[in-house]
Amino acid sequence: MTEITDLINSAIRKYQKNDFKSALKFAEKILRKDAKNPDALVIKGNVYYQNHQISDSLQCYLKAIEADSHHQSALINIANTYFEMKNYEQAYQFAKRILFEDNSHKTALSILGNSALELEKYEESKSAFLKILQQDSVDAWSYNSLSRIYQKTEDYKRALAYGWKAVELSGGADEQHLNFGYLLYEIEDSRLMDSIQKYANEWITKYAQNPIVKHMGNALLHNEKIERADGEYVREIFDVFADDFEEVLASLDYQAPELIMEEYKQILSEKKDFKQEVLDVGCGTGLCGILLKKINSKIVLYGIDISEKMLEKARQKKCYRKLIKDDLENYFSVSKKQFDTIVAADVLTYFGELKTLFKGFHKILSEKGCVIFTVSANTVNEQDYFLHPSGRFLHHKNYVKKVLKDSGFEIKKMSEKILRKEGGKDVLGYIITAIKKA
Ligand SMILES: C[S@@+](CC[C@H](N)C(=O)[O-])C[C@H]1O[C@@H](n2cnc3c(N)ncnc32)[C@H](O)[C@@H]1O
Question: Does residue 288 have its Cβ closer than 6 Å to ligand 1?
């Protein structure tokens, strides 16, 4: 028994030092002696979890509770893993099971509250977070969750007050700024314009240095002086968004990569040589890359993006020769490499003024090279570009045409298309193919 206890302690020590390989070795050694040892199964599950083998980790935790149905770490990890797998019903049931034995368990309350929120059991969710606040009155995430509940139940005044409290208690953490920014944007249409303006003004005054606040605040307050989204802001939102990006975009009927692929097919059909070098700017998770590579495997793809988390996903697609982490304008100013084609799906929406970007495209394209991109249409006013409260820029087609011409491009094709949905409505835009003039 002491030998097993020693081995468990060694496995825990290795795990705590992030030496997952050795922790797994110790756990397996224990399991060879005692196949149902719940502590070893939990450690093994945790190592799988760290390696993103989520369902394998769940199987280990489930085996652990077969051996010891009260094993608290196993129960917590099961609840948490089900939540991660978006199986909110099971996450909710397991959190309840833990709370049955310890009704003030903070992690279980948090999993219960968050799963109940997803399951639209708002009263139960609210009471879980209020219980956490009784134990820890400065827990910013509980305030944030309460704000989400109030938003869902259309009690916007409280949603704003709790969201603001989450920002303040977190000391202005980026995640809370993002949540608060989205809240202000999402309830923009309600009858609370005065309160929203008041909060937005206070937010932008108090946290003036934060790039998320600066960009989202300016968008909400319709500040016309902003020419592009701050790189820090873009990096932060896409780092946070990367895991869910493709699922969310599919639910919005996102069309840009397919539209780009169709245009590129047309371009390629006019060429003899398929060994083209293509730069996918703002490549994100690689949705364009994978489609372009399908057209012809000889195409050599490069990708550039500012968000490491998005690039990580693109890397997994294994279709790019090289992925570069940089801000587009910076890359264009320093790079000496030339490309035959540039594609940009839903990227120019993070730039208002397009001159610098188009000059950059021109610089890195080879002779008669082409650029294929989408822009969202400015259907709000007659200005060249408009910073929408969502933080995305919309462009007037005449402005895009003019800047392309001034930057040394000839427009080959420009079509109006529905790019995706937002808030249930179609987002109108243009897909444009332009050729570098000699
Ligand atoms: C809406 S996503 C589109 C991704 C991909 N093109 C697609 O269609 O799936 C926009 C991408 O542009 C990147 N991006 C925006 N501004 C950028 C900048 N200044 N420099 C580099 N990447 C940028 C973001 O990080 C994000 O991955």
Answer: yes
